[in-house]
Amino acid sequence: MSDDVVDPAPRARPIIECRGVEKVYEDGSVHALRGLDLEVAPGELLAITGPSGCGKSTLLHLLAALDTPTAGSIRVGEYDLARLRRPDHYRREEVGLVFQLHNLMPQLSAVGNVEVVMVGTHRRRRDRAARARELLAAVDLLPLADRRPPQLSGGERQRVAIARALANDPRVLLADEPTGSLDSDSVRTVLGVFERLRDDLGVTVVLVTHDESVARIADRTVEMLDGRVRHPDGEVEAPEVRGPSALPLGR
Amino acid sequence: MGRFVLVNLWAKKGRSFGITLAVALAVMTVVTLAAVSNGLKNSATQVLEISKSDFTVAQKAAPDILNSTIDSHQLAEIRATRGVASAIGVLLETQDLNAANPLFIEIGIQPGDLRRFGVTMVAGRPYAADASHEVMLGWRAAQNWGLRVGDIFHANGTWNRVVGIYSTGISYGDLGAMFPLPALQAYNRVPGALTLIFVKVTPGDSVAKVAAAVDYNHPELTTIRTASQFGRADRNLVFLGAAATGSTVLAILIGAIIVGNTMLLSLFERTREFGVLRAVGWSRSRLVALVGSEILVLAVAGSMLGIGFSFAAAAVLEILPPLRGVLHSDFTTVGFLRGLYTGIGMAVIGALYPALRAAHLTPLRALTHE
Ligand SMILES: Nc1ncnc2c1ncn2[C@@H]1O[C@H](COP(=O)(O)OP(=O)(O)OP(=O)(O)O)[C@@H](O)[C@H]1O
Ligand SMILES: [Mg+2]
Asked: Most exposed: A119, A239, B175, B246, by fewest CB within 10 Å?
């Protein structure tokens, strides 16, 4: 663990906690998040929807420590994101990222793409390869493990990207429109993978999406508007905090 | 990470090859120049090593050793210097015999000095002191032309009978011919002139002291004790050394520009990839290590290739008409090391800016790079 740990593992409280998060982009002209509050329970599969430009990707970037909030606090697990001293470490160990475009490296095979994020971890080379195959098996891609991304379909690529995001056993998976560029068949398979991850591994998943079918598999859907979370009746969301055992399984 | 480096290089074969070639050409220039300048230096200094003298006397600041001119009366004065056991005066000339031998070496020396000068007869006899039309050939020269004792050798615009074949044990000397001193002086219209004087000191006397006395008594002359001191009398070699250094610097600069440009372009292409790596938790330093390892692999490969090229380049130079028989390139460890420094140096200089740029890109900006 790193110096960024502020409080050792209290399991009952939300794994993600955003309080009054503001994000003003550097030039000062865009106020993308305006006092956003959000809590996510451990093991929850949360869908975030909302109109284009409402700040969904901005929020995800903050949660991934790819950017820093202008004001407010964000806590993920034991990490206080406003005071991260080693964002690389946080990104590697605590969260996994899935993008709308798979962003795989075309020169590497599927296994290679998963392995490369384990470079520099305690895992030894042979263990890394074995782990990568294990993860590809988990997303039903073992037979295609040695293909390179150009030889895979869009859905298969996105599954490789999910396997990559899981390589270092993150507790939180962040996905920005992971099905945004897929046909409906592929959407189904990819969503199946997300569900299984939550059910089998207890990974917390935050999915940004425009897709109705995605919202259907989620434990909870929140809608964002103008840089804030909106409650269905227009109030600011105040979610109940649930543990993984409280999750209704097998829908 | 090692395999990742190789995969990346292989994925961009053209770019990798371009950088390797740029490094190789620069390294080739440097190593070949070092080998050639060493070789030329060796050839010329070998003359000094034929005689086992304690020191050699040459004209001060002669542009090269073969252009040194000393008068016979100075030989007599040096012989009279305290502590000098013997002093041999020698005239060295080169002659453009034919296209293959543009710098054929001719040595004028008294037959009485031959043995002390380090010459052994392999066949025949020494020439007479005042003979004309008599010549001794070095055994390598004789072998090259298939000449034997009794044959006729044309040189200096006249015929000469080969009366003996000699050996000096030094290839540069054995590739030439020896003439009676007055005859060679006459052929070259330099009566009484010598090129070098080889001095032996009486046993028990200090070589340094005797040399210093000669230096003091003859301000127009210089004494050379070892081959490495040769630069004292040879401006050409000093110039060649400077040219080698200059070309090294130039090769590094040009190479670094090529490497830097190619790297910068490729990093631009890979911005998104770097953003992904940073987003999945790669640190800045790991990214720099990746880029650094890639360039280092190319630099080492290019250096090896360049050293290979330099052997070929030297071989070509050696058979070029003006250098044939004169240039025996001398590859030394120092030359190879200098090549390796060049290769790695230019790669490091070239990759520095691109690597720092890659490191300082924020992951988000890299990710959203189109
Ligand atoms: N790097 C940036 N610099 C300045 N403004 C930005 C930047 N990134 C996003 N914005 C602005 O911030 C606001 C929120 O953008 P964001 O990408 O979070 O929206 P989004 O909800 O993900 O939209 P979409 O559904 O279209 O992806 C938008 O007005 C956008 O123009
Ligand atoms: Mg977005």
From this structure: B246
CA Rg value for chain A: 18
Whole-prediction pTM: 0.70
Instruction: Report d(CA B190, CA B184) in Å as an integer.
Output: 8
Shortest distance between the Cα of A125 and any Cα of chain B, in A, equals 9
B266 CA to centre of ligand 1 in angstroms: 28
Q: Alpha helix (H) ranges present in chain B?
A: 2-11, 13-50, 72-79, 114-117, 139-145, 171-174, 181-187, 207-217, 235-269, 271-279, 284-319, 333-360, 363-367
Q: Which of B4, B7, B280 sits opposite A91 (nearest CB)?
A: B280
- Which among B276, B282, B288, B364 is the top mutation candidate for probing chain A, defined by the most A β-carbons within 10 Å of its own β-carbon? B276
Lowest mean pLDDT among A15-19, B207-211, B212-216, B253-257: B253-257
A123 belongs to a structural domain = yes
Token pair in block for residue B268: 């631009």
Q: Which ipTM was obtained for this model?
A: 0.82
- Tell whether ligand 1 has an atom less than 6 A from the beta carbon of residue A54: yes
Q: What is the mean pLDDT of residues A49-62?
A: 93
**Closest ligand, as measured to the CA of A25:** 1
Give B67-129 as a DSSP string. Answer: G--EEHHHHHHHHTSTTEEEEEEEEEEEE--BTTBTTEEEEE--GGGHHHHT-EEEEE-PPPT
Is the CB of residue A131 less than 8 Å from the CB of residue A123? yes
| Residues near A232 by beta carbon (within 8 Å), at least 6 away in sequence | A223
Give the list of residues 6+ apart from residue A10 with CB closer than 8 angstroms, or none.
Answer: none
Yes or no, beta carbons of A112 and B4 under 8 Å apart: yes
- Look at chain B and count its residues: 370
Q: Which residue has the higher pLDDT, B216 or A247?
A: B216
The sign of the CA dihedral B25, B27, B30, B32 is negative
For residues B279 and A246, what is the distance between their CA atoms, to the nearest angstrom? 32
How far, in Å, CA of A24 to CA of A117, rounded? 31
Q: Is residue A198 situated within a structural domain?
A: no
Mean pLDDT of chain B, nearest integer: 85
**pLDDT exceeds 80 at position A157:** yes
**Would the CB atoms of B1 and A119 count as touching at under 8 Å?**
yes
Q: Which residues contact A42 (CB under 8 A, 6 or more apart)?
A: A11, A14, A15, A171, A202, A204, A243, A244
Q: What is the pLDDT of residue B306?
A: 93
In terms of Cα–Cα distance, which of A175, A239, A229 is closest to A207?
A175
In a domain, A42, yes or no: no
* Tokens, residue B332: 């030394």
Given a contact cutoff of 8 angstroms between Cβ atoms, the answer to whether B321 and B100 are in contact is yes
Q: Give the tens place of pLDDT for each residue, B207-223.
A: 889 999 999 999 999 88
B273 in contact with chain A, both atoms CB, cutoff 8 A: yes
In which band, very low, low, confident or very high, does the pLDDT at B281 lie, cut at 50, 70 and 90? Answer: confident
Contacts of residue A105 in chain B, CB cutoff 8 Å?
273, 276
When divided into structural domains, chain A yields a total of 1
In chain A, residues with a C-beta closer than 8 Å to the C-beta of B286 are: 119-120
Say if A149 falls within a structural domain.
yes
* Owning domain of residue A157: 103-168
A30, A227 in Cβ contact below 8 A?
A: no
Q: What is the pLDDT of residue A37?
A: 94
Q: Confirm or reject contact between A191 and chain B (CB < 8 A).
A: no
